[in-house]
Description:
Elements lengths: L1 H7 L2 H9 L5 H29 L15 H29 L5 H17 L1
Amino acid sequence: MRLLSGCLGRPDFALKIRERHPEDLDSALRIALQLEVWTKDSIRFRQSEIIQSEPKKTREVTKPNTPSPLEKKNAALQKEVDEAKKKIAELEAKTANSPALSPRRKRNRTAAILLLQMRR
């Protein structure tokens, strides 16, 4: 019995084996092996808890073609500017096709049309 507990090299194992009062050397060896397996298992369990307790790092996945609110607003404003340019071109074409007006009357008429358009 002393040989077995001395071979283990761990005084706590020797105490635990003695506490269980083994009847012979075989039962003492069985107890020692069982204690060794339980110790290794508890160490492994503690290490896995430490690894699991670390926060996991994740990355956010974003859609590459999704425009931001600022880009949406910019696109809407650009669309309004393009529409206004088209209307101005149409109005200028209409005034160019109308009977000959003096340059001053043309400006007044274009300004009046633009004012009407803005009020809508």
